[in-house]
Amino acid sequence: MYGFTETATGKEHLALVYGELDPETPPLIRLHSECLTGDALFSARCDCGFQLSRAMQNIVDAGSGVLFYLRQEGRGIGLINKIRAYHLQDDGADTVEANERLGFAADMRDYNFCRGMLSFLNIKSVRLMTNNPRKVNALEKAGIKITERVALQEGNNPHNENYLKTKANKLGHMFDKSFVG
Question: For residue 11, is it within any domain?
């Protein structure tokens, strides 16, 4: 386990390394943004906790890899604003509309600082578990080669069906049609 402090924001991030990383072999990694409600409280209204659990299992199954736990709650708007967004969603807004009504962009997360974390671990190329094209673009822009994008489609349930459709339709998340229906 390695801790990092993001200089620009003071946020503390975590890298959980499982197994031995081979500098010649791109490790399986997950950039996972903190989601208290999904990760720790088992909320079914998002897919975060389900993805976190599957990502850790995939890393164990692969024999090695890294889970980066990034302190970017609520797509970067923070926990209190995320709760406010939940109330707007309860009144009919989707996840993007809720953030925008609160005066934020649909997704405020930044992945630029991940370059330093990856560099510290001597990682130059990765197998990235994600459905989010912004993560792919951010790593490529930071000079990290992505040898494979590994889909992470977990947690579809009646409580987050519209949330997942919004992620696909408005944020460009790459889901199989059978996953989001």
Answer: yes
Whether 109 is catalytic is yes
Q: Model pTM?
A: 0.91
Q: Give yes or no: 110 in active site.
A: no
In which residue are the tokens 């995939």 written?
A: 58
Percentage of residues in the chain having pLDDT higher than 70: 99
Which residues define the annotated binding site for GTP? Answer: 30-34, 51, 73-75, 95, 130, 135
Q: Measure the N-to-C terminal CA separation of the chain; round to a whole number of Å.
A: 38
Strands 65-70 and 145-150: unpaired
Structure-token pair, residue 139 = 């790593």
Per the CB < 8 A criterion, the answer to whether 94 and 170 are in contact is: yes
**CATH at 64:** 3.40.50.10990
Number of domains composing the chain: 1
Q: Are strands 12-18 and 65-70 parallel, antiparallel or unpaired?
A: antiparallel
Question: Which one is catalytic: 109, 110, 115, 149?
Answer: 109
Q: Please write the tens of the pLDDT for every residue from 82-124.
A: 999 999 999 999 999 999 999 999 988 888 889 999 999 999 9
